[in-house]
Specification:
The protein starts with a helix and ends with a strand. The chain is mainly β. The radius of gyration is 29 Å and the shape is elongated.
């Protein structure tokens, strides 16, 4: 057989092999732990399923010719929190299993060393022991529940980090905390900090409204509920347009209080 024919045959075989290959792509961040893969035999019973692993585009030295193997990140000179893309290439007649994909997801481990307010109402908190970049959710206790005010992106790296968030206070004592929620779905909280605001109280002069609710004393965060407890309006301002709402009983939470009203 001529060399050209052999070369053509090799190209055809390689193309067919590539076309019949599958892949698993894992994306996340290096969190200090390695990835383990369960590697069955190929569908034909000859050889193992996985034939190549790359990490961030570079070939991984993992020994894939065995029933299970480890992707060892220490060979890739990664720092904690660095982005990671793992590409596991395998035959299309079998399916390897990644046993611990969660190790690439950030986990909330922060310790709030301090949390307090400045005199002008800026919440400041200092943390250490962060393990993965997660947002801090700033929450305020008002209307007998915790209400989200905003988010601050966490650093997610070892060391001490300082954060701040400017709140819009209601009248009287304001109680605020921060939290993170990771892939487990379980939130991790700081202690709460309090701030006594000197802003005037926002009030309502009436309990019956047509077309518009107008708050007296300034703008306020508000939530409007129907008689079943479903939120129908929420926002921040000095007025609420209620022209499109049905007549009847409603509950409006504003400033630091909740009041029964009726819409005519």
């Amino acid at each position: 057989m001529k060399i050209s024919h052999l070369f053509s045959l090799l190209i055809i075989c390689l193309t067919a092999f590539t076309a019949n290959a599958g892949q698993i792509v894992l994306e996340g961040n290096y969190m200090g732990k390695n990835v383990f893969v369960k590697n069955p035999f190929g569908g034909a019973g000859v050889g193992f399923c996985v034939f190549e692993v790359t990490v961030n585009g570079k070939l991984d030295p993992a020994e894939v010719n065995q029933s299970a193997f480890e992707v060892d990140f220490s060979t890739h000179n990664l720092k904690l929190g660095d982005p990671v893309v793992i590409n596991i290439k395998h035959k299309d007649d079998c399916a390897p299993e990644v046993l611990n994909p969660e190790v690439l997801k950030p986990k909330s481990t922060f310790n709030a060393k301090s949390i307090s307010f400045t005199d002008d109402g800026i919440l400041e908190w200092t943390t250490d022991n962060e393990n993965g970049q997660l947002d801090y959710i700033v929450e305020q206790f008002r209307w007998n529940k915790w209400v989200k005010l905003g988010e601050v992106k966490g650093e997610g790296t070892p060391g001490v980090h300082n954060y701040s968030f400017k709140i819009t206070p209601h009248s009287g004592e304001n109680k605020v905390r921060v939290k993170q929620t990771d892939f487990t779905g379980r939130p991790r909280y700081s202690k709460s900090a309090t701030y006594n605001a000197t802003v005037p109280a926002v009030t309502l002069d009436d309990d019956k409204f047509r077309g518009q609710i107008e708050f007296k004393g300034g703008e306020t965060l508000y939530e409007l509920y129907d008689r079943y407890g479903t939120i129908v309006k929420k926002g921040f301002g000095s007025t609420v347009n209620v022209e499109n709402l049905e007549k009847g009983l409603y509950y409006v939470s504003f400033d630091n209080t909740t009041k029964d009203i009726s819409i005519k």
